[in-house]
Amino acid sequence: MRKKVRIGDLLVGDGEPCMIIAEIGINHNGSLEIAWRLIDEAVDAGCNAVKFQKRTVEVVYSPDELARPRESPFGTTNGDLKRALEFGQREYEGIDRYCKAKKIMWSASCWDSGSVEFVERFDPPFYKIASACLTDHDLLRRHRVTGRPIVLSTGMSTMDQIRHAVDVLGGTDALVILHCTSTYPSRPEELNLRMIQSLREEFDCPIGYSGHEVGLATTVAAVMVGACMVERHITLDRSLWGSDQAASVECQGFKRLVRDIRVCELAMGDGIKKVYDSELPIMAKLRRVG
User: Fold this and answer.
1) Which CATH class is domain 5-286?
2) What is the pLDDT, as a whole number, of residue 2?
3) What is the CA radius of gyration of the chain?
4) Can you tell me whether residue 76 is helix, strand or coil?
């Protein structure tokens, strides 16, 4: 039997309902009020968790990168943008209180060790390692030291790199691996959903899907081919300013996504052929022999 992973009150793995994460990320555009609205929408849609991104800006980006010219609503340099999008202690205390009141789990993708130490204060039920960080082995080890379940995204990575990351993490205990294509948005022909099965054959842990495509059908299809966890970015409006907005799902779409995943899970059944009670009147009416 394949391993399952407990995240909060949920079991993640084969035979369990798909865990659905609404990735708020940086779609809050630096506004705690927008973050709260997105949390509300995730709860209303029936998501199991929301997720943010946490960086120590001066560690993740070089001085030259921060000084690079970049026009945004927050200023004229890349540093102006990155600092404006970064929530601190006050904002995360507000997020923590709000999620507890709404009874939804929250966590973050931490891009540096200092950010792991920061988020640890809030006792997160899991950590998500972004695709960009899969080859940062020191960061992987820092996450594993926490002893918390880890969700590992695999965009931009080869199978050898994924195998090595799993080895650095100490194996597949308390690990969920997400198939992912790291383009925003991703084209359907580059989603390669059969990789979900390939990862299932390779690793004894739950396999999920982190999607950045336009539309919902391919994410539902990912669940049908074996994804035990799904993550999609959520936004109030795909036309809003921000690098992730166009690859996100608006709130009404997120409701449809969760609904369709749950309906399809129910429809899969157990694979055992049976005659349902609802068929008996039709059988009596139409079947003439046997």
Assistant:
1) alpha beta
2) 87
3) 21
4) strand
* Rounded Cα–Cα distance for residues 197 and 169 (Å): 22
Q: What are the phi and psi torsion angles at 89 (to 5°)?
A: -60, -50
d(CA 187, CA 215): 11
User: If pLDDT is split at 50, 70 and 90, which confidence band does 290 have?
Assistant: low
| Lookup: tokens for 83 | 């600092």
9 pLDDT above the threshold of 90: yes
Which DSSP helix (H) or strand (E) runs through 31?
none
Per-residue pLDDT tens over the stretch 15-72 = 999 999 999 999 999 999 999 999 999 999 999 999 999 999 999 999 999 999 999 9
In terms of Cα–Cα distance, which of 158, 155, 156 is closest to 178? 155
Q: What local confidence, expressed as pLDDT, does residue 243 receive?
A: 87
Distance in angstroms (rounded) separating the CA atoms of residues 265 and 15: 10
| 68 alpha-carbon distance from chain centroid | 30
Q: Give residue 20's Cα distance to chain centre.
A: 7
As a whole number of angstroms, the distance between CA 271 and CA 265 comes to 12
Looking at the whole model, is its pTM more than 0.90? yes
d(CA 75, CA 171): 44
Q: Where are the alpha helices (DSSP H) in the chain?
A: 32-45, 57-60, 63-67, 78-84, 89-102, 113-120, 137-145, 159-168, 195-202, 217-224, 251-268, 280-286
Any idea where the domains of the chain sit in the sequence? 5-286
* pLDDT tens digit sequence for 74-116: 999 999 999 999 999 999 999 999 999 999 999 999 999 999 9
One-letter amino acid for residue 223 of the chain: V
CA distances from 169 to 35, 115, 141, 173 (A): 31, 18, 6, 9
